[in-house]
Each structure stands twice: as C-alpha cells, then as structure tokens.
Amino acid sequence: MKDSGFLLIALLLCFGCKSQSLAQAAPNIILIIADDMNWDDCGACGHSKIKTPNIDRLAKDGMRFDRGYVTASSCSPSRASIIKGQYPHNTGAEQLHWAIPAGSSTFVEKLKASGYYTAAAGKWHMGDHIRDHFDIVKEANTAGFQLPSGGEKEAPKMIAQQPSGCEDWVATLQSRPKDQPFFMWFAALDPHRAYEIGIIDNSHTLADVVVPPYLPDVPEVREDLRQYYDEIARLDSYVGQVVAEVKAQGVEGNTMIVFISDNGRPFPRDKTTLYEGGIKTPWIVKWPEVVSAGSISESLVSTVDLASTFLQVAKIADTSDTFEGNSFLPILHEPKAVIRKFAFGEDHWHDYEDHGRAVIGKEWKLIRNDYFDLAATPSADAGRSMTFTAMRQLKDENALTKDQLNCFAVPRPAWELYDLIKDPYELENLAEDPEYTQIREELSKALSEWSNRTDDFMPTKRTPDEFDRITGQPDHSVRKRPRADKKEMFGTYGKY
User: Fold this and answer.
1) Taking Cα atoms as reference points, which of 223, 204, 50, 202 lies closest to residue 152?
2) Mean pLDDT on 356-383
3) Which CATH class for the 25-332 domain?
C-alpha cells in the first residue's frame, strides 16, 4: 500500500505550526546503520548498563520506534533491501555477499538526480554496480584485520587496530557542498565481530552484562557480551560526533537523522534467525522541525519503508512503482499513525544454508522454517566465538537448558508462533496449540498474501554450506553460490 496524498496533505495542515523553512528548504537526511546491534542493546531501548549516552540523547530529542524490523537477518541482504526499497527476494542480492545487480534502481540515485549531494562512508558491502549513485563513497578499510583462527579468547591478529567504520563520518559531513541538500549513508562496522580488548576507556564489566535466557550464563558468554558492549559504546561516540557536527553547521533543525541496525547481535539464536534478536532493530528518528522530542511510537515499521519515506521527505514523486515499502512520514507527525498491519522478515543463506519467512503483527509473530531439516546454526563468526565454543562444551556435558539447545535442534518445527507481549524471548512455541489456531491461520494468510503480492519463491536447489556445522571450519571448495531460478511452489505451504 502506498500512502495517500490526501493523508499527507491533512497531516501537513494539522502541523502547520512547524517551521515554514520545511516547505522552503529540502530537508537533509542522515542514515546511520549499526552493524549487528540488537534492538534493545542501548539505554534508550531499555538496557540500563550499556554506555550509549549519544544514542540515548538522540531518542530523547526525537522519536523512538519500539516496533521496527529489518527485512533480513543478514548484513548485505538487509542493506540491499534498504537501498533498493524492496524485499530481499526481489533485490537480486538476497544471499550474503551477493552484489546488488547492475541497472538496479535505488532511492539514492533519485535523491542525487533531484539535486541532493549523496555520500556514503563506512561499511559498504553492496558490490560495485551502485557506487555511482553516490557522489562519493569512502569505504572503511579492513584490509589489515584478520579474524582469530579459533575462538576469540586470543586477540585478533592485526596490522592495525580494527576500525569502527565510522572514522570518515564527520570529515564527509565537513567536506560536503554547502549549497545543496545532502543525504549521508553512514554505516558502521561496530559491533560486528571480531572483538578486541581495550577499544574504549572505562570498559564495561562482567556485572554490566545481561544474558538472555537462550544463552548460558557462564563467564565465557559474559566476557563475549562485555566486549560486544564496548563496540556499541565506541559506535555511540561517533553518533555523538555526527550530531555535534550537524549542530555546528547550523542545519540541525532541518536535518533528519535515522538510526537503525542492519540486523541483530552476532550471537547464537540472534543474527541469521527470524527471532526478535535477528530482525528487530533499534529505530530512532531525530528531526527537530518535524518530530516532537521524547516521542515514542508503537506502530510497525520496516526498513523496506525507508526508501519511500526518504523520497517523500525530499518531496520527490516516484511513479515507477519500484519501491515496495510504505512511507512512515505520517508517524513522525502522529506517533499512533498506522502505515502497515504486518511486517515481514526473510532468512536466506548466510555461511550456512537456510530459508524461512516471518510475519509480525500487533502482538504475534509466525515463523515458517522451510529447511526445518537443518539446524539453526549461527553465523560463522558467532560459531567461532567464546559463546558458542562454551555452548558446544556444555551440550556435550548435558548442561544446556531446552531453550539453550535451540541452535542444535534437528529437525526444527516447520512453524513457530509466539506471543511477543507475554513471551518476548520467544521461548514457548504455540503453533501446535489448538487454542491459537485462529491466530496462526490469520498470520499464515497474511504471509501467503504477501508472498503472492511480492512474487516470493522457493529456490529450486539448495546452496552448499561454506563452513562445517560441527567444527565451524571453512570449506574452501565452496566459493560461488549458485543462483536459484524462481519457481512456483505448491504443497505444505501452498503457492507462494
């Protein structure tokens, strides 16, 4: 559904008391993307110990979205979906490391064509074909960084300290032309693995760590999470520098700053899954001339909505029907506005083969695991971590709880249904409970209708794993992953 022009006009009239400069000057837009940061791993979203004063201030001065979702629980597919404004299966880049295809349309090229100065700085991860959609791309240099060969107790081998990916953000802002509105794509490497000791002053302590119930509360897990927290704190410092620079340039009022993550934390049962720890994202918008400070929205939003929103903010009419999202501009004016009834998430190959879909409603989530014969093995970097190394050992000792064995379970349920209000960690699968049959059927229908509407498909063949699921060691014989042709599927799940 595309937003009605009548709705936008009505909202703008209702908020006519906002600064008249909004109608006169094209708003600037800054998109800040964290790398593998969980939705609630900052003070603004409820964590009492993580040191994120700048992200917290961003929320205090703007709007916090409590129901924001990414479309994919994997880095590059998520970014492709954001920039193309399409669901991952339609981007041509739905698997990890697939480049966005040549000839792709993005919202950035439309901003550039309309007179915006467009710049990207930090993590890229989208291939070479859309680089010219930006006036400048300053890609973070990670050439000197190597992952540790086994576990992360030892420090990574480095030629230089692992970059945060944020080093060029302020310089990019400072070097922009001052006679054009601007769009900035600022993508961090923090808090992606691997981690280092001592990257910030006043590091977090083991006592600061909150261990979710699906991970064992042992020293190795706490230390792993502690280092992850430090990377979030380093990212936070760069967020503060960006906000300060925008203010110093005198454009704070007419600059929209959006903060999100590309997917959830890089730990077992989070990243690369369709649980909240995989696809729910922190989502904050600061825009002083439009957004009321300290406002909170419970309305569903999806990162597929960003493209449509940015074009509407820039007052660029798009008649190509390329973008599949809905503008969330109405929510910025009225936090209770509804732009979508459901959000949708996808799971594709990421180091290991997998395929699944999720639909999220007001209170419920339904997950469909298409390859339920495969374990929900975490991403390779999480698989090499202190956390998963400890979990493997504890599994051998029969010392893991049922909830902590999720990543090892074979087969998995074909369907999973969760009450997100009563069961925020998604530990009680209600899919087979007769009491919830109607809810499951309603969500299944919504998922089927979305699949048909967006031309979703089941791959005709599976993609080989690139790492051993037991040892985590790489299989160097697997280099190019075969693209799968689209195919209509009938049977257990119906056509989609």
Assistant:
1) 223
2) 97
3) alpha beta
pLDDT at 126: 96
Could you give the percent of the chain with pLDDT greater than 90?
82
Report the DSSP pairing between strands 301-302 and 68-69. Answer: parallel
Rounded to an integer, what distance in angstroms lies between the CA atom of residue 420 and that of residue 345? Answer: 15
**CB 159: neighbour CB atoms within 10 A?**
8
The type of residue at 467 is: F
What's the pLDDT at 477?
Answer: 72
Mean of per-residue pLDDT scores for the chain? 90
d(CA 415, CA 420): 16
Q: What is the pTM of this model?
A: 0.90
Task: Quote the CA–CA distance of 264 and 271 in Å, as a whole number.
Answer: 5
Strand partners, 368: 357, 415
Domain extent listing, the chain: 25-332
In the numeric block, which tokens belong to residue 84? 């193309």
Nearest to 365 by CA among 272, 444, 265: 444
